[in-house]
C-alpha cells in the first residue's frame, strides 16, 4: 500500500505539471501535503515537514545557486565565457568539445559538491552552445554525467565519505576503485549516450547567453579561466592544505574550514570576479550590480522548484517510507553487492535524494557486513551507484537540469533520467567486475 501511495503521488505530480500546466512549486506543495496525509503523518505535523524540507534543501543551496548565477551571469556578460570557449575550441577542436567539457566536469566535480559544480559549469556549456550553434543537451550532458558520477562514487563527497565510515572501508582504496569504475561509466553515460539526443530541442536560459563583443572588449585568457574557476581552485586548495602537518595545528584548521565552505568560496569568488571581470574590464560598480540583480531574477523560480522537491523528499522520509521499503527488500535472496545497489536504487526512485538513499541503505546493510563476506570498499561504490538510479520529478537535480536547459518533462526524462540510470547500471557492472579480481 505504501508503494502504491508513492506511485500515485508521483503520477499526480507529473500530471499537474504537464497536463494541468500547474506551476511546479505549487504542484509540489499540494502533492506533498496530500501524500503526507495518505501516508499517516498527523495533520498538525505536515507543515513541519514542509518547513523542514524547504529549510534543509535551501539552507545549504539557495546562497550557492544565487551566487553561482551571479558569477555565471558576469562570466557570460564580460566575455570571459566566450574567451574560455575559444581556447577550448582551439585546443580540442569542435568535434572533440564534448570530451573537453567531460574532462573539465570530472576535474571540477572531484572537489565540488554537485549543485555547486552545476551552477558553475552551466554558463560554460551554454557559451559553447550559443557561440557554435550546437545542441545544448548533446554538448552539456557529458559534463553533467561527470559531475553526477563524482558526486555518487568518489570521496570527499558527503554520501560516499559517510559510507566509507559506516562500512569501515579504506578511503584511499574506495577512491582508487571509484576512479576505475567512474571513467568508463562517464564515457558511456556522457559522449556515447549523448549521440542519441542531438534532436532534443533546448533553448537554455538567456541569462547565460554571451553578448557579441569585440576582441579588445573581452578579458584575457588567464583572467577568464582564473576568475571563472576560482571556486574550484579555492575548494581544491582548502581540501589539500589540511593534509600538511603544519596546517593541522593552531588556528589553521578552523580558518581552512571557514574558507573552504562552499558559501564562503562562492562569496569570495563573486567579490574577486566583480573586480577582475567587472571593474577591471571597464564596467562600473552599478553595471556589475545590475548584472547580479538580473541573475537573481532569472533563477528565482528555479530555487522555489528545488525547494518543492525538498518538501516531497522530507514528507517521504518523515512518513517512514524509506525504512519500510528497505525492510521489504532486505531479505531478498540475492548477492550482497547487488542487494545494496537495489535497496539504494529503489529508495532513490521513491525518495529522490541520493544522499538519503545511500545513508538509509548503509543503515540497513552495515550491521550485517561482517556476515556477508563482501569487500566493504566495493559495497560503498555499489550503494553509491544505486543511489543515482533514475532521477525524476522528486529530485532537485532533475528540476535544476530541466529549468536551466528549458526542457519539457518528457525530454528531461529522456535525457537526464536515462543518463542517471546508465550511470547507476554501469556503476553496478563495474563493481561486479572488480569483485572478480580484488
TrEMBL record:
GO terms for molecular function: gluconate transmembrane transporter activity. Its main location: membrane. InterPro entries: Glcn_transporter. It is found in: Cell membrane. It holds the Pfam family GntP_permease. The chain crosses the membrane at residues 58-76, 97-130, 136-154, 175-194, 225-244, 251-279, 299-317, 338-366, 378-401, 413-437. GO terms for cellular component: plasma membrane. The keyword Glycosyltransferase does not apply. Keywords: Cell membrane, Membrane, Transmembrane, Transmembrane helix, Transport. The keyword Transcription regulation does not apply. It is a multi-pass membrane protein. Belongs to the GntP permease family. This is Gnt-I system high-affinity gluconate transporter. It comes from Pseudobacter ginsenosidimutans.
